């Protein structure tokens, strides 16, 4: 083989490797929205996949039992209840998975916003330190003023470092929940504004035993206990058997009543949490509006020569802080809605479709 041919082969090999590496990089980069993240988890997440497989298994068993002419009533009832329970479990799993993914997505997104805010704060602290040092040199400030400015800079610089270290960890956790390969680079879009809660508390509390897996199981237990009483209430079954069946039915009724009461309380608390979170969003938005007004005024004073540039920079950071506070408040509302959905068995986020 000639030297020229070997050289050309090496170049082609390197170019091919670079091309493959670029393709792999493209493959490992994933852009997500809050909706697409939840949809991906519901479509192929491990927990949902398992719950879906269990439902298919229960459906197959029910078909087999119904097709078997020798199946007795208790066997058929148990198969029907298993099928219904599997369906409720699948729906509940979807809401729980949606809650987890929503929380992970928002935590990662919020970490990115915190980095931007901390970066702005560090830049302001550096400027304040420079001013303090200049004032000290001009003998119009003390060393204590410089020390305070340096301490503020050090503290916020450490907060920035912590936020930068936290972001990849949060994104990696989200990627795992979505079943994405290790090392996948995630780009997260801005979350949409959370929806207003339109369902009433009474509506969400009604029919919990048909939507929540734990209550569905308790309800099925009561139905099966009632069937046992019906089957034992005759003149050829020992009286003791009937009494035991009635006792079991009464116990099942009490268990269901207690579970429904506890679940209703959980829904009420989650509902109130959503209302509180909505109020926090409204307050944060008003504070942001006030900060924007202050920033506009500071810029006007700078233009008029009645304010220093550092005052505008301070107003800009304050405006950025209030903007981040709105993001946090909206994220809190999203999380509260997801928690209410998991507690009530109703998707109030609109994401767990």
Automatic annotation (TrEMBL):
It is found in: Cell outer membrane. Residues 267-301 form a coiled coil. Its main location: membrane. InterPro entries: OMP_efflux, TolC-like. Residues 1-25 form the signal peptide. It holds the Pfam family OEP. The keyword Signal applies. This is Transporter. Belongs to the outer membrane factor (OMF) (TC 1.B.17) family. Keywords: Cell outer membrane, Coiled coil, Membrane, Signal, Transmembrane, Transmembrane beta strand, Transport. It comes from Deinococcus aerolatus.
């Amino acid at each position: 083989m000639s030297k020229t041919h070997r050289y050309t082969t090496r170049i082609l090999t390197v170019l091919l490797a670079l091309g493959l590496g670029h393709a792999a990089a493209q493959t490992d980069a994933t852009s997500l929205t809050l909706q697409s993240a939840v949809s991906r988890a519901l479509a192929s997440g491990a927990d949902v996949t398992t719950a879906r497989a269990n439902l298919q298994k229960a459906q197959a068993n029910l078909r087999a039992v119904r097709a078997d002419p020798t199946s007795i009533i208790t066997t058929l009832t148990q198969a029907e209840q298993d099928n219904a329970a599997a369906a409720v479990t699948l729906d509940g799993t979807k809401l729980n998975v949606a809650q987890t993914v929503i929380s992970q997505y928002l935590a990662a997104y919020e970490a990115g916003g915190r980095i931007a805010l901390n970066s702005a704060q560090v830049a302001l602290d550096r400027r304040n330190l420079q001013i303090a040092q200049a004032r000290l040199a001009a003998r119009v400030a003390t060393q204590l003023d410089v020390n305070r400015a340096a301490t503020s800079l050090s503290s916020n610089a450490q907060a920035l470092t912590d936020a930068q270290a936290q972001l990849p960890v949060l994104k990696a956790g989200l990627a795992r929940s979505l079943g994405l390969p290790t090392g996948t680079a995630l780009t997260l879009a801005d979350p949409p504004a959370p929806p207003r809660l339109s369902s009433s508390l009474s509506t969400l509390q009604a029919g919990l035993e048909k939507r929540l897996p734990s209550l569905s199981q308790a309800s099925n237990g009561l139905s099966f206990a009632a069937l046992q009483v019906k089957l034992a209430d005759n003149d050829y079954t020992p009286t003791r058997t009937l009494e035991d069946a009635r006792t079991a039915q009464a116990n099942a009724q009490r268990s269901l009543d207690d579970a429904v009461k506890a679940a209703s309380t959980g829904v009420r608390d989650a509902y109130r949490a959503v209302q509180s979170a909505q109020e926090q969003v409204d307050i944060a938005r008003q504070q942001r509006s006030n900060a924007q007004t202050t920033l506009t005024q500071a810029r006007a004073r700078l233009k008029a020569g009645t304010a220093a540039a550092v005052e505008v920079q301070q107003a800009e950071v304050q405006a950025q802080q209030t903007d981040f506070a709105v993001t946090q408040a909206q994220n809190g509302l999203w999380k509260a809605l997801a928690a209410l959905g998991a507690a009530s068995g109703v998707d109030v986020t609109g994401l767990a479709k």
